[in-house]
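Protocol step 6 of 9: fold each sequence in the batch and record its structure tokens directly after the sequence line. For illustration, a two-sequence batch is reproduced in full.

Sequence one:
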Amino acid sequence: MTTQPAPRSAARAAARAARTVRTARTARAVLSCVLLGAVALAGTTGCGGPSPASADGHKDAPAARKAAPEPTESADLGRRITDYTAGITADGSYRVPTERERRAVAEGVRALLDGDRAAAARSLAGVGYAVRTLADSGGARYAEIADATREGEVRRGWGRVYADLRGPAHWQVQVPHPSADQRTEQLGIGLLRGAPGGVLVLAGAHRAADSGAGPDAADVAHRRDSVFAAVSDALADRRLPAVQVHGFADSSLPDHDVVVSPGSGEAGLPSARRLAAAYRAQGMRVCEVWERYCGRLEGRTNVEGEYAGEAGVPFLHVEHNRRVRDDDGLVAKAVRALVEIAKTWGAGR
């Protein structure tokens, strides 16, 4: 039997009914959006269908996320550095880094101070270094740039860098001869903790360490081809003034406790005068190289000082006798003098 077509009036009725259903559905959808408006404005619900970013039907990612906090390791900064330098001995090893390796570590330090930790990590990882965040027992946070493994640290002896994370970097303290100039690292630690805005550059080998490249290859105060010098130069390029701490035997200059020098340049002379006065205020006998000859302790041939002098950046070369370095109370007084000058640098003076 042939089916007869439905009357035209019935078709129109069916169409009206369909439109009524669609209108009702639309009204319910609009009402739902109104009721959920606060959520929709927060970006967690959409009423217009999936956005282009979520057209595959997956839930949209939030428009912005807070960066995940960097992993932080709790540590006593003084103990950590002291334990490290205790392992630096004259019979240790040292490898002269290549130009690429020196540049990579220096670039990592630059990137970190620019606030780009990811770029710093990439540059450092390329040469087996890493950056870590330390929460010191006193509450301050520091970045540690060091060999990624203990094996690499012992074998290469390139050293470490510590940067205060409380704010921008304003100055640097350098310890080129840990172990050889005993307890000079304590001066560096005390200064880094005592004044904000510091960067500590710490050598990683004894100056007499075996390198297979000559007897003085590990003496980073007198070699341009070291990670230590590369980092120091990078900081000088940022106009960060520096104080480099050393130690001398009491018999070398028996009438003095400290020798203060602006190195081979003149940019550091005003700071050197202030530092000498600060040491005297702590009861120490100071030999000022601009006033008299202080023997072979004047730091005129120091390579980091030469670079800073050519750049017109203040550089202070400071020697401390054994009596000062062996006495915790005198170390604390020396640190107070150093902190005084670092704070003037931090204040832009």
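Sequence two, same batch, same settings:
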Amino acid sequence: MPLNRFIMLWGLVFFCTVTTSLAQGLMIRNYNVKDGLANATVYAAVQDKDGFIWFATPTGVSKFDGKRFRNYAKKDGLTDNEVVKLAADSKGRVWFFTLNGKPSFYEKSVIHSEDNDSSLLFNSRSHYMQYAFEGQGGYIWFLNTNNRIVQYNGKQTIYDKLGASGADLYFLMRNDSIFHPLQASFHLETLRDPNNSLQQISSVCPYPLDDPTLRTRVNENAVVIMRNTLYSYTSKEAFCFFNGAEWGIKDDISHMCIDNDNLWIGTQRALYFLKGYFRGERRIIRLLDNHFITSLLKDRDGNIWITTFGDGVYNIPYKNFYFSYLDNTNGLYSHSIFSISKDKKNDLLLIGQNAGILNTMDVDNQIRQYTLDTTSGRNSVLSITPHTNDNVLIGTDNGLYNFNALTRKTSLLKAVKMLKDVDVSPGGKIRIAAKNQVIALDDYAISDLDMLVTSIASISDSTYYVGTNMGLYFCTDKQRTLVPAGADTMRKVSIKDLKWIDGSLWVGTSDQGIYVMQHDSVVKHLSTANDLASDICQQLYYDGVGRLYVATNHGVSVVDVKTRRITRNITSSDGLMSDDIRGVYADHDILYIATSNGLCYFNADHIPVDTIPPVIYLNNIRYGDSTFLSSQRFVHLYKRKASFEAEFGTIVFDLPELVEYQYNFSGDSTNGWVTTMSNIIPFPDLQPGNYTLMVRARKYKSDWSKALSMEVNILPRWYQQWWARGILLLAALLLVGVGLRYIIRRIKQAEKRKTEYNRRIAELEAKALTNQMNPHFIFNSLNSVQHLILEKEEKQALNFLADFATLMRQMLNNSRKSYISLEEEIAFLTRYLELEKIRFAHSFTYHFIMEDALKEYTIYIPPMIIQPIVENAIKHGLAPKNISGYLEIRLEMVDDLLYCSVDDDGIGWDKSNSIKSSRLIKHESTALSVIKERLQIIKSFNGSVGKLEIIDKFKSGFGNKEGTLVEILIPIVKML
């Protein structure tokens, strides 16, 4: 939607005397090039039969539905881009008066001109059309700038023979029963018709302005504009019903418009609004100062459209005539208002603003300003409270003042920093809420509270409630201590305002809506869930007759105090200047609403509500990369992966951004409706078939419109026919059969390979088993047992033999499994190392280091894969040393592999190889090659890649450290 600019423009009311007074303001909306208008200079405006507003500009025409402009130029079918006037006939055609004089019109989404319609062929002789008239049978007569009559009869465009006999504009106007004018007014240099000597011409209106006969006469007949006067014109008489000079208008009138009892006058310098002119009222409002008004239009909804030369189009929504507005452009100090009240005795409206300014407006709408708080910094007028006789209490940021509405004198009652609220008890006792204190004027003060006091409400002359940012409190003049109130519900609640109404306390909060309390208990809670405008309450105002007004940051909510129900919400959508409401005041039927953008006042019971559903139309259809004109039936051959989009629109000039759409593609008008705010309805990859698309819309507070339906027929391609699909199905089945056969054969081959792998693994495990437990270890272990027996160490020998047997049994059990747990592997290695320590006379120590992350899971690894590495470290690294050695086994998780390092401080890999016998070298090489082959076979099954690396620390940059570091990455199975 184009972003509308709202401009508040005000004027002076000119009376017949020199006396002037300030008038109410009107909210005027401006549309310009940035909103989509074809040009900032607009010559004319017209509304067509469907409801669209058309604008004529020097660069083409603009068609407007309230939200979007659709622009047409010469490339779109216009005969010329310079369109000077427009006319709409009863058949729905919009005629374009272009500078080249060639006739053209818009009908059913197409611009008709001589290029596509032979009936419009015409030699204009460079004279363009000025006026248009419609006759019977749809004939159109034009009067061009050469004062010639041109006729269009649907078959041809010709110079009419009437023109050859001397017929002119007077002739067309005189015979208005035959020629119906398609424009509201005519510009003439003289009223005298040379062919009508019987016509009476009068410069004085024969009717009183408030005579209904006058308005009927003016509405039903042509209006002639002569310089700055308006005449009602018939063949019998022409009389002046408006003389601009009598109203202070000296400029020539460019256009006029009649709106019910009101008269609008446009000139080259300003726009004039004569409110109640045909009721005899003498009030004139000057608007759009220094604007050249080119035309005026009242649409069928009552909105006023003003076109200008160079400043775009202005619009005044019909409902804004029910409101009056005040801000800094028509009398107030600024646009921001903090408080509002009225001294009914003196009939004086009081308006509090920033800078300590109090504005007053009397019954004659005279506005005066008084500076109350002159301190620096914040000094806004926050509260206005009626007191006694002619006196009003005025609370500002820095003090409490008394303002006498009769004498207009001000006096300071008490200087108070950060004053928040003022309340008067039934007996007239004044209490003040300010920052962190409560003040009973001329009595006592409760100070230095550890909370922010925001509001106060008196129950009686001696008891009252206090609202704070930390909850609700109760106090009496006797105790002078704040006591928590409202039980647990009101603890920690941030309170903005309080009102005591007929035995109930109404609590407005800063973020939780409204609470209603009776006898210290909450009996009702109202929030946005109950249709409250917002949960952020800024002020509560009770009108004394059963209605509570809640000012919020999203409008005003009206609450019925008796039923405790929200009866209505009033927002900017209804005509307020802003939704940020600071205060409310009701005076009989007039409601005053103070906002951050000005004051709005109106009859609260007569706010217009537009419940008529909007007019919905189909704009265009997009299928794939192509765009098609609107039609009730769309037929197209299927496009693969092409998106079908239908773009709709509504003709809504008031709040077009709140229009909702519903669409249904099932053809069922009772079910399946989808609601959206978008006017583009997409259907990606729409399959072949017949569909019925139904769309309806509703605007703010209206019902749903009648559904607009469109038939959509997507034709299938040859391969989407039943016979083609049958062939494709058979081919697919054959292909599936071949595929299944291939897959089964691959599965059988995989099973065969798996069997072969298992066989090889079994062989390798057998090899590993024979290599893991070195026969020398078994032989030497038995020698150790023999030595212990000879040394009479029978008990130690028996223990050694028992551990040796357990180790052998554990080795045999593990060799039968593909995976064992890491705990089992560590237990096996520990038992093995303990036996090796005994066998080698405790010539080395060992240590296991295990990462904590490994303890969170149960880790399974291939058996007998670490032990050969440990054995090599002891036998070829530590055993040849002359001193005690150290062995470290580290276990960590790296990605999804187990990292194991066997680190010894022995003689080193290279030195060990140099002193080994050929038998030992062969044994070791076989053991390590078996480990590598096992890792490779495991990779072929589960894809995990193992790794084995042997590092001589002395040669590999470990400083002067000797020994060997063996690193191995082992594929694992991890379970929680």
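Proceed to step 7 once all outputs are recorded. Observation for sequence two: The longest strand covers residues 689-698.
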